[in-house]
């Protein structure tokens, strides 16, 4: 089977490497996003998929827009049987969908129709899900609305963060994609339409998603911390300065009272009152412009006054 592989981030790389090792699959080319400024220094650098393709001596193409006439001509010239697309980062226009005879096959990081959209891993954790998975589907003109081909369920561990879950899902997706590709020409796969009534959405993360609402229960706040790691993180305000926090739910029945956001010191523990009479145990704090420090270092340095609070605003 001759394929084109479209992908950009690390999440796509395990499937690329897995397919590359198969004698019955030829990867004719990789299509990935143009080099972009990345990281703190904002230096222009290649995508993880481009780096993987170069290392494997697979031709790389980086159209600015996949919908451009030049990109369309390129796809036709490459004449793929199938196009695998994983977290590529651009919407594929309907006029390109019929170019590969077996279609565009996507690996999506959720059990569709749940968590359609750009950030399914983050929102599954942030919403407190205990399971998720990967789905292979034939894409159509909608946003993650195509017919489902295969799925595999993955449990979400209670303390798992978004990067950790992404690594697990990317590894699980590689053999699932191979199984899907091999089943396509044999006619063994029964594509099933998604039930739109069961759909939920996982929009692209925004900076404000990381703002902590102390009126939420501690477990909800913790879930959002896990889901929004590393960006936008979980932040609040203390004495007019923005702070990035890491904390975990804590049970202490003898400690009650205090408005949400109130900081308590209980022996060696620094605790924060949350909604529904719940508590978080503060682990680390990073005040804007400073290095990350432990909760105890923060409390000692700040010389906390009684009933001082992290603010919602």
- The chain-level mean pLDDT equals 95
Rg of Cα set: 23 Å
Tell me about the largest β-sheet.
7 strands, mixed
Largest sheet: spatial strand order? 5-2-1-6-7-8-9
- Helix coverage percent of residues? 10-25%
The number of helical elements comes to: 7
Classification by helices and strands: alpha/beta
Strand content: 25-35%
CATH 2nd-level architecture of the largest domain: 3-Layer(aba) Sandwich
- The secondary-structure element order is EHEEEHEHEEHEEHHEEEEEEH
Provide the descriptors you would attach to this structure in a database record.
single chain, 313 residues, alpha/beta, Rossmann fold, Methionyl-tRNA Fmet Formyltransferase, Chain A, domain 2, 2 domains, seven-stranded mixed sheet, six-stranded antiparallel sheet, 27% strand
Describe the structure.
This protein is of the alpha/beta class and 313 residues long. It has 2 domains: 2-198, Rossmann fold, CATH 3.40.50; 207-302, Formyl transferase, C-terminal domain (Methionyl-tRNA Fmet Formyltransferase, Chain A, domain 2, Roll), CATH 3.10.25. It has helices spanning 13-20, 48-55, 69-78, 120-126, 162-186, 218-227, 295-302; strands spanning 2-7, 26-31, 36-38, 43-45, 60-61, 82-86, 104-108, 131-138, 147-155, 235-238, 241-250, 263-266, 269-274, 278-287, 293-294. The protein has a 7-stranded mixed sheet with strand order 5-2-1-6-7-8-9. Strands 10, 11, 12, 13, 14 and 15 form a 6-stranded antiparallel sheet that branches. It has a two-stranded antiparallel sheet with strand order 3-4. The radius of gyration is 23 Å and the shape is elongated.
């Amino acid at each position: 089977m001759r394929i084109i592989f479209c992908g950009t981030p690390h999440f796509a790389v395990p499937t690329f490497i897995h397919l590359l090792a198969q004698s019955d699959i030829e990867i004719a080319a990789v299509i990935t996003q143009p080099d972009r400024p990345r990281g703190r220094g904002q230096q222009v650098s290649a995508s993880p998929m481009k780096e993987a393709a170069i290392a494997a001596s697979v031709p790389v193409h980086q159209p600015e827009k996949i919908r451009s006439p030049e990109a369309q001509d390129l796809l036709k010239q490459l004449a793929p049987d199938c196009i695998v697309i994983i977290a590529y980062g651009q919407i594929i226009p309907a006029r390109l969908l019929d170019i590969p005879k077996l279609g565009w096959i996507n690996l999506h990081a959720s059990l569709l129709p749940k968590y359609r959209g750009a950030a399914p891993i983050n929102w599954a954790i942030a919403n407190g899900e205990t399971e998720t998975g990967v789905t292979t589907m034939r894409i159509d003109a909608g946003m993650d609305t195509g017919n489902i081909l295969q799925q595999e369920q993955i449990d979400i561990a209670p303390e798992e963060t978004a990067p950790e879950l992404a690594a697990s899902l990317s590894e699980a997706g590689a053999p699932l994609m191979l199984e899907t590709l091999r089943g396509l020409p044999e006619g063994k796969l029964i594509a099933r339409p998604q039930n739109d009534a069961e759909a939920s959405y996982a929009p692209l993360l925004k900076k404000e998603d990381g703002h902590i609402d102390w009126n939420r229960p501690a477990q909800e706040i913790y879930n959002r911390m896990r889901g929004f790691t590393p960006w936008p993180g979980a932040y609040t305000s203390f004495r007019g300065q923005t702070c990035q926090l890491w904390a975990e739910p804590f049970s202490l029945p003898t400690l009650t009272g205090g408005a949400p956001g109130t900081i308590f010191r209980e022996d060696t523990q620094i605790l924060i009152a949350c909604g529904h009479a719940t508590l978080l145990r503060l682990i680390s704090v990073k005040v804007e412009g400073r290095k990350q420090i432990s909760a105890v270092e923060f409390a000692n340095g700040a010389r906390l006054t009684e009933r001082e609070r992290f603010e919602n605003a």
